[in-house]
């Protein structure tokens, strides 16, 4: 078996996985996310490492009790952000989360001067404040001494691998955003120059070759209660791992990760960058030759549901009954789901995008408000999946996919079946799939994808939502000029 580890933004999980994709046991532990003034969001690398140690030791003990040999340690986790380290893997300052907004002004300047569009035309990457490009530029201006002390500017997964194996590396999926030419799997010198970061090229680790495995050092093996020299697989990071772990197999297939935000991905067999297109989303390299993921990482998701539930004074345990109390169309109430303070980044880029409810009356119920928001998030999912090139099957995973009623809304809005894996830890599954392939013993992808429940669209609801989706797109087009003029603020 393989121990698959998924290091999320706030929870680290480890699963002991069989070759059929099922988990024998899963352990989890929370880690801290530090929110600070100025839009800073940080994590402590040592605390994250400790969270991995805790869950891996627990799962390793379970494997020993069952007398099951562990073939490899497969690691995936959150992407983007900036995890600066020295040569020995020690942190150079706190890790900067992908949620961080300190570089928002840098990105605003790049959008105004055309840098963002130039980078997008070179690599297909649509940047946002929490990705490596603007964060590196911000540090170069505000904290140059940190970059001088750093040996590598990497990400969560490679920071963990660095500590456990002593190797400085990066998976090509992580490196894809924003400087990698994913077709060649090499960094674009032109993109680095456009961002004013050419002198910091040496901080970017070379992407590991496909199928590369590393080995646990003796000290790390003792720490993790695993054999020294055990193969370690480093990626892909959580978005592509979730895609493959959820069942994406053929070009045109898509996956919807319904988490705090939406990760909308479609597998493609070629990279198509439209120079004059919307500079949104990204292209990710994958472990599989001639396969790429077109990703639209929207800022809407279960955070929207949490917000509206708080507004109406209930918790998530009442979601099913609330959705059941309001029919499709929410009795005339419609919503836009752009509640993030940083606006939207996919499938369009609007830092000032904001949410709204329309059609309210004295007859509006809490169920109507909840349904309208759930429908708005589903419309956003369709918008992103279509922009990413969806033509095949759709799988869904994440916390939102556990709701039967909300899954039905997604299927009805998409107008196609939505397949939900029975095994929830799809990120660890995707990492384990890559590890077995690297070991030369790939798993049966068809068999892994078969263990799922399928939510079929209801024809009448799908027909209704087809009209609703067109109205949703019209509303966005009418709202964008207002957003671009900026919010009026508030009286103080």
UniProtKB/TrEMBL annotation:
Ranges where the Carbohydrate kinase FGGY C-terminal domain occurs: 284-438
BP GO terms, sorted: carbohydrate metabolic process
Molecular function terms, GO-annotated: kinase activity
InterPro entries recorded: ATPase_NBD, Carb_kinase_FGGY, FGGY_C, FGGY_Carb_Kinase, FGGY_N, Ribosomal_eL34_CS
Keyword terms: Kinase, Transferase
Residue ranges annotated for the Carbohydrate kinase FGGY N-terminal domain, each copy included: 1-245
SUPFAM superfamilies: Actin-like ATPase domain
Annotated Pfam families: FGGY_C (PF02782), FGGY_N (PF00370)
Protein family: Belongs to the FGGY kinase family.
Name the record gives this protein: Erythritol kinase
Originating organism: Saccharopolyspora rectivirgula
